[in-house]
Specification:
Blueprint lengths: L1 E3 L5 H6 L1 H12 L5 H9 L1 E5 L2 H13 L9 H7 L13 E7 L16 E6 L4 E4 L7
Antiparallel strand pairs: 1-5, 2-3, 3-4, 4-5
Helix pairs in contact: 2-3, 4-5
Length: 136
């Protein structure tokens, strides 16, 4: 998981797909391959603002790495339960999935899910990109 503190407030990135994509592209310019940065500008963003829904969506995302190969949905759901931990709305964690934007260029030779997850952690003011892959 790679994190950074965006220049923009997380509240803006939480509701504006264009702002989120622009912040990602700026945050990883010169670090990620150009092809991946270009894909960010076109990616559709699925958002999960509630901790309950984010935990389930993240678990499904993890299962998409290789479905039945490494753990079941309940184990994936337990691993994602920390989305629900903040009890205050201003400290919540949100999940944004950049659809169709795979981390394959960053994890060569690994089986990766088809979407790129971004976590907005309002409690810390940081955003995180989660890279998950399986060397099978």
């Amino acid at each position: 998981m790679r994190g950074w503190k965006p220049d923009e407030p997380l509240e803006l990135l939480s509701r504006d797909d264009g702002a989120l994509r622009a912040a990602l592209a700026r945050g990883f310019e010169g670090v990620w391959p150009d092809a991946l940065l270009e894909g960010i500008s076109r990616a559709h963003v699925d958002r999960y603002r509630s901790g309950f829904l984010a935990a389930h969506a993240c678990a499904l995302h993890l299962l998409r790495v290789d479905e039945d190969n490494w753990f079941d949905f309940q184990a994936a759901r337990a691993a994602c339960a920390w989305f629900e931990e903040p009890l205050k709305q201003r400290e919540r964690r949100e999940l944004a999935l950049l659809k169709g934007l795979s981390a394959a260029l960053l994890l060569p030779g690994m089986i990766v899910p088809p979407d790129l997850p971004v976590i907005l952690d309002h409690g810390s003011g940081a955003a995180f990109v989660v890279l998950a892959g399986l060397a099978d």
